[in-house]
Amino acid sequence: MLESLREGLRGAVDKLLGRSLVDEKAIRDFVRDVQRALLQADVNVKLVLELSKRLEDALRNERPPPGISMKEHAIYVLYNEIVKILGGEDVKPPTPQGGRPLRIMLVGLQGSGKTTTAAKLALYYRDRKFRPGLVAADTYRPGAYDQLRQLAERIGVPFYGDPRERDAIKLARDGSERLVAEGADVIIVDTAGRHKNEAELMEEMREIERVVSPDMTFLVVDATIGQQAERQARAFAETTKVGGLIVTKLDSSAKGGGALTTAAVTGAKVYFTASGEALEDFEEYSPKRFAERLLGMGDLETLVEKF
Amino acid sequence: MFGKLREALSGLRESLTTKELGEGEVSEALEDLKWRLIEGEVAIDAAEGLEAALRDALLGAKVRRSHQEEDVEARIREVLLSWLRPLEAAPLENVVQSKRPYVMVFLGVNGGGKTTTVAKVAHSLKGSGLRPLLAAADTFRAGAIEQLSLHAQRVGVEVVSQGYGADPAAVARDAVERAMSRHYDVVLIDTAGRMYTKSRLMDELRKIVEVAGAHERVMIVDALTGNDSVSQAKEFDREVGVDSVIVTKADADVRGGVILTLAYELRRPIRYLGMGQDYGDLVPFRADEVVDSLLRPA
Ligand SMILES: Nc1nc2c(ncn2[C@@H]2O[C@H](COP(=O)(O)OP(=O)(O)OP(=O)(O)O)[C@@H](O)[C@H]2O)c(=O)[nH]1
Ligand SMILES: Nc1nc2c(ncn2[C@@H]2O[C@H](COP(=O)(O)OP(=O)(O)OP(=O)(O)O)[C@@H](O)[C@H]2O)c(=O)[nH]1
Ligand SMILES: [Mg+2]
Ligand SMILES: [Mg+2]
Description:
The complex is a heterodimer of chains A (307) and B (298).
Chain A: H1 2-17, H2 24-40, H3 45-61, H4 70-85, E1 102-108, H5 114-127, E2 132-137, H6 144-155, E3 159-160, H7 168-181, E4 186-191, H8 199-212, E5 216-222, H9 229-239, E6 242-248, H10 257-266, E7 269-274, E8 282-284, H11 287-295, H12 300-305
Helix pairs in contact in A: 1-2, 2-3, 3-4, 4-11, 5-6, 7-8, 9-10
Chain B: H1 2-17, E1 18-20, H2 23-39, H3 44-58, E2 62-64, H4 68-84, H5 92-95, E3 102-107, H6 114-127, E4 132-137, H7 144-155, E5 158-160, H8 168-181, E6 186-191, H9 199-212, E7 216-222, H10 228-239, E8 244-248, H11 257-265, E9 270-274, E10 282-284, H12 287-295
Parallel strand pairs in B: 3-6, 3-7, 4-5, 4-6, 7-8, 8-9
Antiparallel strand pairs in B: 1-2, 9-10
The complex binds guanosine-5'-triphosphate (2 copies) and magnesium ion (2 copies).
Residues 114-115, 138, 144, 190, 193 of chain B line the site of one magnesium ion (MG).
């Protein structure tokens, strides 16, 4: 099983590389293998069909540049398609600008990793000499307040919360103001998990965004999400201004194709990835490296440099 | 003599109104179904496995000419039901009577809904007049103990806890012993979420199961999971063992494809579907309902 996951696109690519000639059949096989691998990586079905159509067109109609074989060209086209969906160029995480504090809000499905990620982000900014503060605005999940408070204590950053307050909007507003007044320059607001069918919760999220007016709303996406990624991402993007993605749980064997889908649907780029529960298991990410993970190959770089 | 004639005539009528499905029709129907299954969150191996099984069931099958689509769909439904029916579980209230206390360990990957589900199951058992005892054996994740304790308070049940950093197996044993001496009916052990890729954490889970003398190892699977559900099912089963499954977050507009994946990869009873964040949002798994949802056009 794990074996077949690892094969994935790498298999498709190797098979293509092993062919003596790229004919009609080779193209068809390659496209089919790629389709299967992308589906196994949980990339959205429609996206897979679009992508494979563009791939097929390019392979049929484009001439590879001089010095580049048909096979290399095929792989490059595929890589480019994926990078394009992920947003192309690498992105820089936001920082406070012009002396104004940076306001970040985290949203996402239940259990996707928002609260843990809030603390990871705080640690990330603290390590870069900023003064982050954490706001607990999840009044829904029992123990959410304790969870974020304990994490804040662990890394020693200011925290705002009130376990008796039932109004998440008030918490978000009061917390952001209080922490700014206390000198924090990166405000990170943690919110309750919710999904598209929970209308009241979706509305609450809109209100929280209104009072916080975040510079960046991160949608936290679990790498193990399947075909639902599209509909859920759309609902989040229609309700809030999703500006970036953070992909969690990359320590699973999932390849995170749901994140690729989410990027395509929301137009937002992946900024960070998390691959473990420890607060250190967190890093900046680039669309290029993400594409390499999806393609199951770290040696793409050398090929890509040939172009 | 008339019998023979009648037989011949009815055979004739049949050949006019019915026909056997050929390769072309079958392939077309199955290709369409496969995409529908994949869009309905069925993992690709399971979708392909099902496609093969259905091909066998459909090739050469007799369908009415006038109702070809209906008849094909009916056959497909039959096969899906034959996969899913065996996964329907006996009512938990009855099962727990077999041992006293009946010990259940809840396990699964991070954030799937273990702690919430423990509370829901406690609520349901309590409603049936049984006495559940909870064990806070997630001594690792920030806020885990407060979360379970708050749930217990609201549901009105007791929790055994030894604080953060305690050995989770010791917490589990403590709870089972308390349940024996104080005559609780069921022990529900909440464990920390873990990735199957971390062998040390899988060892820890195995120890909890052993020390507690678990009667049922309940795996929690998030209905939003894609192809990773395959690794989850196989690895937890291989490393620790899985006796039953509860699929959570089935209210999140999902088709229920993960259930078909589990039927294909794991074949263990599915106790409940989690349908929301309230204590009452726990419904027994019904095969026909899932099949309806999977076959519903997109
Ligand atoms: N293995 C792994 N676990 C993670 C990662 N990020 C978060 N988790 C775990 O996932 C679980 C859920 O994380 P939370 O931070 O509580 O998720 P959440 O989105 O805040 O959940 P709700 O507030 O209930 O919606 C916890 O057990 C975390 O420790 C990751 O990158 N890898
Ligand atoms: N909508 C919905 N949310 C659910 C359901 N079950 C659990 N949740 C939510 O999912 C999130 C995670 O649930 P938990 O019970 O904390 O999950 P867990 O598996 O114990 O998480 P860890 O212990 O961190 O691994 C919480 O926000 C729950 O309210 C469900 O059936 N439907
Ligand atoms: Mg949270
Ligand atoms: Mg838990």
